[in-house]
Amino acid sequence: MHDTRNSVGEAAYIVAIDGAGSVDVESSLKELSILLLNLGVITVGRCVQKRDDPDPGSYIGSGKAEEVAVEAKDLGATKIVIDGRISPGQAANLGRMTGLPVWDRPLVIMKIFEERAQTGEAKLQIELARCKYEVPFLKGLGLQMSRPGGGLGTRGPGETEFERHRRKLERRIREIRKKIETVRKRRTGQRKQRVKAGLKSIALAGYTNSGKSTLLRRLSGDRTLVVADKLFSTLDPFVRRIRLPGGGFTLMTDTVGFIRNLPPGLITAFRATLEEISTADLILLVVDSSSNSFMEDISVVEDTLSSIGAEKIPKIIVMNKVDIVDAGDMGRRISAAGRAGDMVIPVSAARGDNMNSLLLAIERFLI
Ligand SMILES: Nc1nc2c(ncn2[C@@H]2O[C@H](COP(=O)(O)OP(=O)(O)OP(=O)(O)O)[C@@H](O)[C@H]2O)c(=O)[nH]1
Ligand SMILES: [Mg+2]
Question: Which of 209, 230, 320 to probe ligand 1 with, by most ligand atoms within 8 A of CB?
Answer without folding.
Answer: 209
